[in-house]
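User: Okay, second chain of the day. Same drill as before: sequence in, structure tokens out.
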Amino acid sequence: MIRIVKSLTGGAALAFAVAAVSVQGTEPASEIIAPDAGIKAPQQAEPRDPLAETAAWLSQQSDERPRAAGLLYRLSMMGRVQAARSGDEATDAASTIDEFEHAIRTTTDGAALAWLALACESADVRKFCIAQGLDDAIVAHDGANFFSRISLRKQPDVEQTRRLLLDSTVRRTYEPERVAVWHAAMQRYDWREALETQRKALETQGVELSDAPVSELSLALLAGFSSFSSSGGLIEACGTEIDITARWVDACGEIAAEMAEHGRTAYHRFLGLTLLQKRAEAMGDPERAASHAADLRARQNHFSCIAWASSAIDGTTDETLQRDYLKWLERDGEIGALERLAELAELDCSNPPDARTEALRRAGVDSDADS
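Assistant: Same drill. Structure tokens below.
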């Protein structure tokens, strides 16, 4: 996860954000959150967490995507709600679960359902979520989305994974859409003041922070990619044996190819390529397996180059660039958006074997010293 977030936010923004934390339908996000929906920051001297405050506001919205995005972040930060230690934490956990239960009962949007399922996984309350009807809602409203439903299973076995895959007509993750929701919210909130209180508190604790600027897009990327759909045992279910008479074989081939070419994050692209390689090995085709392995290495090298272009959006105040990046991210996914940034930066990543060298050259880094 850190690798993916780092590629999106850049090193400077990530360094501060990690230190601070350690402790759509298809509607555009600008239409999901009303323009006059201002967020009032609390008046207090205590250090404030801009993402936590924004998440609390998002989870109170009536629109399904903002509400689910806020609840996902809150439960992800909370971890196991039953492990809350103090009375205040226990009260907050209970309140969040009440809000969460209501959201499960009233959500029909596919992306929002996927984020609620991720929240169930993050808080380890999968059985509670299934009992409240979340699994049924995903089946009814988002084509039994494989990635959403697999989040509701803890360590699913091979047969269970294959069954979920066969039952699904949708196999989609919604990370870019979540970033867009967060960006729209961050534009309506005085997060800089909250960030400054947090910065001062960390400095008093002796934490050394970067002076690099932080933008609402950087924070939206950090929050939007703080949780994402995992494979849920996909390699074991699809890449360890092949029975050409079984229906799940074709479904495995379809999801592997789809992820390899159109995965929404670099993680899912590389997972798809890895799965194609494993399937070829299981089918006794070493030449095809070697081809997929070489393709994976080349794409990873390419990604290591275009990821340097993320520095163009670290702390940027260019609203046009922010809007364009979000548009590319929602339309083309993480890799596609970074490729557009690389083009703007005139970063030549066209030759994958030399991509890393080119990236280091543009960054002014000695490749021999770096290796």
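The chain is about 65% helix and 0% strand.

User: Thanks, on to the next one.
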